[in-house]
Structure formats: C-alpha cells, structure tokens
C-alpha cells in the first residue's frame, strides 16, 4: 500500500499568491509563500499520483515528478484550473487568490499627481476558482473530489464549515493563522479537516507538524474519502 496509494490518479493543486497588476510596474498581492501547496504536490507525487501544480509567483523549487504551470493573475489561475479540472480526480485549492483585481490595469506607469493627496483605485472581484471547479459537471455528471483551505483568525470551525457548504467542497483544511509560528510563511502547520460525503459529516484534528507531514495526512484522508465515495 502506502507508496502506490495514489497510482493512476491525477491530482491538481493551486499554490502561492496571485499577482494583480495595477500598471506595468506595480501589483496587488499577498504574503503566501506557496509552501503548503508545494508540500502537497511533493506528497502526492510520492504516493504515485500524476501531479499538476498551478502556481503563482513563489521562490520554491518544483518537487520531483511534478508538472508546474506558472501563472501570475487570478484570471490566469482560473483558466489553467478550468482546463485541468475536467481531467483530474482530486483538485486541491491551496492558493491565496487575490479577492479583487484592478478593474483596468493602467497601460503606463501611474504618476504621482502634484497637489493630490489621495488616489482612488477601482477594484473588481476575481472569480472564485475552487467554487467554479466544484460546480463543474462532466457528461457523466461527475467532477473531481475538491479540497479547499480556510485560513481564519477566529471562529475557525464555523467559518470553515460555512466555506465547505457555500463553495460545495468535499473537504476543507482549516488553519488557525493567528497562532505564532504556524500558517503563512511558516514551515509548520496545524489543521482541522472537515468533510461531507455520502456517509455524512466527519472531521479530524491534525496537531502542529511540518507542512510535508501535514500534506501527507491531508492526502491520506482525501484518498480514503474518495475510495469510500468515488462519485461526487
Ligand atoms: O473564501 P476564502 O478565500 O477564504 O476561501 C479559501 C479557499 O478558496 C482556498 O481553497 C482558496 O484556494 C480558494 N479560493 C479560490 N478562488 C478565490 C478565492 C479563494 O479558489 N478567488
């Protein structure tokens, strides 16, 4: 078992931040390091899966055996995700997608204006990439097993459960990012896994551990849910 647990499966993972241009030299982004998504990709490849890693701009090496698709913006990540969603068994949305982008990126560098102390940027909402994957149906009525992440600073369980239902996910990995040394940018993470399937609802609490260990535990649970309930 173990080694070949994901043999024959295609797992798609989004990772890292997205970068939303304001003009040719500036952008909106966030501090996501991509470490958790890259750990998931490494763990999935170890288990024998075919792995596609759709990554925003991060400075991490591509794990062995993983196909990396580099994107910058949320719209590019959305397009790559839609392209691969139809041909994968598990889709894991680990990316910290910018919720908004500039309505129009300026063609030329935005200049400081003499005598004007404020500048107004108009932003518009980006698509929800993982919710769009969860809403897909192929000709046979199927779609991949969809795993989302929820980073919260309070009411972890309630917010994560709401996200699980609202985005129609199969499983969610909820992190408390208010704990020092865990989550964003850190090497360790703790999580609460929650899922919904034909058997009802379930959960598993994963204590603080290196992100690669946590990634293995997340995949173990996703694979066992998928085996018990192959059609979503
Ligand atoms: O709503 P929130 O951003 O907290 O949800 C987090 C989950 O949704 C993560 O799995 C993240 O990758 C995904 N997400 C997405 N597209 C967005 C926003 C979030 O796929 N535009």
TrEMBL record:
Pathway: Cofactor biosynthesis; coenzyme A biosynthesis; CoA from (R)-pantothenate: step 3/5; Cofactor biosynthesis; coenzyme A biosynthesis; CoA from (R)-pantothenate: step 2/5
The protein's required cofactors: FMN; Mg(2+)
Keyword set, alphabetical order: Decarboxylase, Flavoprotein, FMN, Ligase, Lyase, Magnesium, Metal-binding, Multifunctional enzyme
Region (Phosphopantothenate--cysteine ligase) location: 11-232
Keyword Nuclease: no
Record carries keyword RNA-binding: no
Segments forming domain DNA/pantothenate metabolism flavoprotein C-terminal: 7-222
Listed EC numbers: 4.1.1.36, 6.3.2.5
Catalysis performed (reactions): (R)-4'-phosphopantothenate + L-cysteine + CTP = N-[(R)-4-phosphopantothenoyl]-L-cysteine + CMP + diphosphate + H(+); N-[(R)-4-phosphopantothenoyl]-L-cysteine + H(+) = (R)-4'-phosphopantetheine + CO2
GO MF assignments: phosphopantothenate--cysteine ligase activity; phosphopantothenoylcysteine decarboxylase activity
Binding site for CTP: 93-95, 99, 109, 127-130, 149, 163, 167
Entry note: cofactor: Binds 1 FMN per subunit.
Function: Catalyzes two steps in the biosynthesis of coenzyme A. In the first step cysteine is conjugated to 4'-phosphopantothenate to form 4-phosphopantothenoylcysteine, in the latter compound is decarboxylated to form 4'-phosphopantotheine.
Family assignment from sequence similarity: In the C-terminal section; belongs to the PPC synthetase family.
Listed name of the protein: Coenzyme A biosynthesis bifunctional protein CoaBC
């Amino acid at each position: 078992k173990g080694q070949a647990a994901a043999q024959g499966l295609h797992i798609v993972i989004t990772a890292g931040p997205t970068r939303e241009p304001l003009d040719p030299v500036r952008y909106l982004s966030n501090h996501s390091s991509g470490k958790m998504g890259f750990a998931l990709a490494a763990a999935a490849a170890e288990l024998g899966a075919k792995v596609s890693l759709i990554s925003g701009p991060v400075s991490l090496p591509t794990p062995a055996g993983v196909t990396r698709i580099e994107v910058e913006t949320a719209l590019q990540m959305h397009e790559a995700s839609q392209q691969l969603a139809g041909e994968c068994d598990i889709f894991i949305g680990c990316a910290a997608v910018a919720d908004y982008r500039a309505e129009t990126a300026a063609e030329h560098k935005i200049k400081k204006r003499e005598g004007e102390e404020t500048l107004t940027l108009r932003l518009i909402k980006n698509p929800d990439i993982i919710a769009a994957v969860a809403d897909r149906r192929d000709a046979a009525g199927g779609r991949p097993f969809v795993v989302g992440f929820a980073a919260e600073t309070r009411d972890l369980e309630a917010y994560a459960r709401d996200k699980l239902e609202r985005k129609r996910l199969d499983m969610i990995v909820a992190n408390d990012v208010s704990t020092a040394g865990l989550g964003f940018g850190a090497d360790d993470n703790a999580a609460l896994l929650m899922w919904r399937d034909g058997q009802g609802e379930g959960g598993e609490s994963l204590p603080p551990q290196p992100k690669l260990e946590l990634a293995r535990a997340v995949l173990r649970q996703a694979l066992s849910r998928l085996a018990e309930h192959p059609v979503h």
